[in-house]
Amino acid sequence: MPSSDTLLFRFGIIADPQYAAIAPNAAMDRYYANSLAKLAEAIEVFNGEELSFVMTLGDLIDGSWESFDDILPVYEKLRHENLFLLGNHDFAVPAEHLASVSARVGLASPYYAFSCRGWRFVVLNGNEVSTSAPPEGHPYRELAAERLAALAATGAINAHRWNASLSDEQFAWFAAELDAAEAARQRVIVMNHYPVYPPNEHDMWDRERIIDLISGHDNAVAYFCGHNHVGNYGKTGGCHFVNFKGMVDSETENTFAIVEVFEDRLEIRGFGREESRTLVL
């Protein structure tokens, strides 16, 4: 067994660049075009570190298919493995491109899992059942409208069109991944665009069943997400829920993080507006 002071590995985190070649929305503190320079700065920091990978927690772009042509080349300067998951704004593109978003960022599947140094990472597609991401005419659009209406009828704070949910198929896959990791004695970090805890207006529509599933697995120790640009943190059971702050916010100040994995803790080293945290396991 490694010592608790032995660094096992580290990885980088970026949340919500939401790049677009458009004027800022000062009222929301979003400076879309400035994300290219912020991303380049983050990559320069990452390239000076020994990292196993860098994950972007969704919302690479905002509102234009052509924005991918501007932001993806910035990532080519990264010397580490570059991983993506998708956010709601990645699907704010013309309808004819909706089915191609995953392929455009190089994803063979919009949800997937991988292992690193004996840890398992489960990467969710939080957009699967939503009112915006499925191609027009897809049954998940109709299901999303039903789920949103049912949630809104309860007065839930997260009953908004900008949130979404997992299909039953993906949820079953998620459960199977947690079970397989448990059998393999692997700790798990879940990654998704959308938060689920603490309760917030940006949470997944199906937050309760996701929390229940995670809470039933002692090996699920952290859940990392973006979407809520101001950031958030909570812990329930043995799992830490960390909502990283959005890169698109603020005219000049950046935000990103490096996560260092130890046997007994995760050390989050925040840059710019991102907070540093020690997550005891």
From TrEMBL:
Coiled-coil ranges (or none): none
Gene Ontology MF term list: 2',3'-cyclic-nucleotide 2'-phosphodiesterase activity; ADP-ribose diphosphatase activity; CDP-glycerol diphosphatase activity; manganese ion binding
Limits of the Calcineurin-like phosphoesterase domain: 9-230
SUPFAM superfamilies (alphabetical): Metallo-dependent phosphatases (SSF56300)
Pfam family, one: Metallophos
PANTHER family: MANGANESE-DEPENDENT ADP-RIBOSE_CDP-ALCOHOL DIPHOSPHATASE, PTHR16509
Name used for this protein in its record: Calcineurin-like phosphoesterase family protein
Lineage: Bacteria, Pseudomonadati, Pseudomonadota, Alphaproteobacteria, Hyphomicrobiales
